[in-house]
Amino acid sequence: MDQSDEESNTKMGEGCCLWSIASNIITYSVLAWAGVQFSHLIKRLFIHGFGSYPSFTSYGTWAVVTGCTDGIGLSYAKELARRGMKIVLISRNPKKLEAVALRPKLLNSQSEEQFDTETLMIPADFTELDIYDGIKEKVAGRDIGVLVNNVGMASDPQPFLDVPEGEKTFQDMLLVNNMSMVRMTHMILPGMVKKGKGVVINVSSVAGISPVPFMTTYSATKFSRTSLNKVEKFVLFITLTIRKDVTRTRGIEYQRSSKNLDSKFVYTKMADKFLDRPGLTAPTPDTFVRSDLRSIPKIQVTSGYWFHNLMVRS
Ligand SMILES: NC(=O)c1ccc[n+]([C@@H]2O[C@H](COP(=O)([O-])OP(=O)(O)OC[C@H]3O[C@@H](n4cnc5c(N)ncnc54)[C@H](OP(=O)(O)O)[C@@H]3O)[C@@H](O)[C@H]2O)c1
């Protein structure tokens, strides 16, 4: 073997060695990444399934729940009442509100379970803009520990141009799904900042993760998380920026709780046109809310329900 053969063998050896180091680095990086993802998932499943509830009353005496006469909002009201909170109930239908609020107790009609609690009923339609001064007046002076920005509306699935009374429907949707979140947070957050504690839950949807055909505007109002191309979207944007702006250093838990649509429903009247009954992939709102509340303050951005964590990475 002459000298040039030896040199080329040495170079080949070095090349193989470098390739083997690179492939080891790639393999171990992928394994490490997969391990982190797996432990992230297991942690979430455990917290949503078995985690302990925080003491909600330690954040304040009252919880404010928007859109609370049905579905997920009603379940938040009931579950927070069960955990000792007094509830400010805000919704549009006075008769339904009365059925929930005018009794001294919140009544769970399915199980006849009752919770002793004080309630304040505020009839308000979030499609209107002039409701906020009235709400502010009524909640003034109360020690509010939890705000649930839950109210939401969707139209029946239709192509964008075929939605009946599109101008009004789309405007209402933006006012109900987005404006309510901004205005209610702007109203309630200063009290939390002053005392240095509080919980804000913003309800989003998996329909906000990527555009959903036939639900264009609903999907857009639920802009809910950083997508693959890193476009920040409405609900996550407002959650994260307010957290950074105001709350991060002041002990306030700010959670964007992403409820699921598509195959990841919660079984409420909003979703019943897509579903026959509740099940593992579409829990009842009570099951969903219990799972979500376990995650406070441990998880900031979540799909809310343990099984949905297997279907949506949040
Ligand atoms: N269910 C799901 O699968 C699902 C999936 C993704 C996201 N979400 C989100 O979860 C939240 C709650 O949804 P849900 O399924 O529980 O809905 P829901 O069963 O239709 O209940 C909505 C609640 O909001 C009230 N409401 C509606 N429009 C209002 C307005 N203009 N002013 C005041 N109150 C109003 C309703 O009052 P009435 O009782 O008078 O109708 C009801 O109490 C929404 O933000 C929704 O986008 C739900």
Description of the molecule:
- 44% of the residues lie in helices and 15% in strands.
- The protein has two domains: 1-50; 54-311, NAD(P)-binding Rossmann-like Domain (Rossmann fold).
- By secondary structure, it is of the alpha/beta class.
- The protein is built from nine helices and nine strands.
- The model is unreliable at 225-232 and 256-263 (pLDDT under 50).
- NADP nicotinamide-adenine-dinucleotide phosphate is lined by residues 67-73, 91-93, 96, 125-127, 150-153, 176, 203, 205, 259-261, 265-266, 268-271, 285.
- InterPro entries: NAD(P)-bd_dom_sf, SDR_fam, VLCFA-Steroid_DH.
- Belongs to the short-chain dehydrogenases/reductases (SDR) family.
- GO terms for molecular function: oxidoreductase activity.
- Pfam families: adh_short.
